[in-house]
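dude i think i finally got it to work??
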Amino acid sequence: MQHRKLSNTGIEVSAIGLGCAQLGSSKTEYAVNLVRRALELGVNYFDTARGYWDSEIKLGLGLKGNREKVYISTKTGSRTKEEAWRSIQESLERLQIEYLDNCHLHGLGGDKDIEKRLGPGGALEALVEARDKGLVRHIGCTSHRSSVLVKALKRFAFEIILVPMNIVEREPLKELIPLCESKGVGVTIMKPVATGLLPAQLALKWLLNQAISTAVPGATTLEEVEENSLVGHLDDLTLTAEEKRQVARLVHQLEHVRCRICGECEPCPVGIPIGITLGTDVMYDHYRTMGPDTFKAFPWSVERVKNNVEQRKQVISAIRSCNDCGECEKKCPYDLPIIKMLRNLVEPMEDMLRIWREQLGIG
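look at this
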């Protein structure tokens, strides 16, 4: 496995890490096996979050006995200092470790959110104190919007950032990554295969030609763990002429159908959570990537499904209530056919509910 410096942190991380959001979807034994397979393949950087259901618990079990060989990055979505302290303690307990290698402020939003979390009494104060006490070694931040991270980096000396980037979503290359290079900030990448829309090997190979430290693709199966991880073992990352043509074709095909979760289209007048639904719906991505038959056979976490069923019913209902006002499409900077994209999700989402009802008796 190729290793890269996580900029000024002094850490050397595997070029391909493991994004752990999907661990929350499956039964514990299945998730633990995914983590252990990643370890066998040389992965040493694991990205999780307090908000990823029970993935911290499963990750902790999978990494047991290997603490000094790995780097664990988690996140807190807390806004206040008190809430963030509680989140840090819970993460340590769930992961069964004594310190976090990194803790991110999770999903920074606009100016008001930055002010709240980075200002007096905000979550950042807890992270700084935790670092002073040795509970957290490095402090980072994440956002789906490069512009937000640029503002955050100008407010505080964050050491690591996590941002979406892939063949289609290239905004970080314009300002954010050059800023990180100048400040010595480690760059880690989420959504590297655009939640399954891109061919993993090509997408990850393209990314490793950029100025990043590690990409953290999620994985639902052992095969995906292997396919992703083995890109980090390539001796030559140079894109062939055919691969460059394929990259160009993918950009052309997806640039006007891939949601960047920028939030510009929201709020929706009828309450559709547009960005989450189109850009980062983990459970739907399982369905789309696996296909109905494999989705049906997956070893689902019953608690995770129970939680998702009610949320999904609400999303379907909201989409059905769309009155074609078109406000979202007027505001979308990427000219996405948002209304059509949302309506196209109703049938597969209802099939997801049918499968869970028949297989698990839920919903």
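Strands lie at 3-5, 12-14, 18-19, 45-47, 71-76, 102-105, 139-142, 160-164, 186-190, 214-215.
im so relieved honestly
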